[in-house]
Amino acid sequence: xxxDTTGLAFGVFGFSQVLGAPLTGWMGTKLxxxxxxxxxxxxxxxxxxxxxxxxxxxxLPQKVWIIFLGLFLLGFIVAVIYVLVIPExxxxxxxxxxxxxMVELRAKSHDERAVxxxxxxxxxxxxxxxxxxxxxxxxxAFALGTMFGPIIGGKIADKRGY
Length: 162
Prior knowledge:
By secondary structure, this protein is mainly α. The chain is built from five helices and no strands. The chain has two domains: 1-83; 86-162, no CATH class.
């Protein structure tokens, strides 16, 4: 592929992520996040198959439009899988915090309604910090994968061929 075509391939991947992210957010309000993520994981092999080289089923012809279709689908799937990860991280961390606060506040007070109000108040303040940490964790993990994936893949391709 030419340099222009390669740049377009990166654009197709990013563009499909941009389209997939809001749709994933909407699907996350209608379905449990695990169902949405499992849908993405189920479709991912199809996208990778389209990007080739596909040795199964006799292989696909190595046409640029087939590779672009695979890239578009993969970008969409990346959005489907990863957009709902951040709320999961926030909820997991928030649950631990709420339990810790509940034990602490119940030791000080016997009024359950006051305990619940205080937990709600504290969680409202902590949610911003949790969101920042969850976003940083998610983006760091994604960046590490995009950094080490090609390095490891390149080494494997050198040893095994592509």
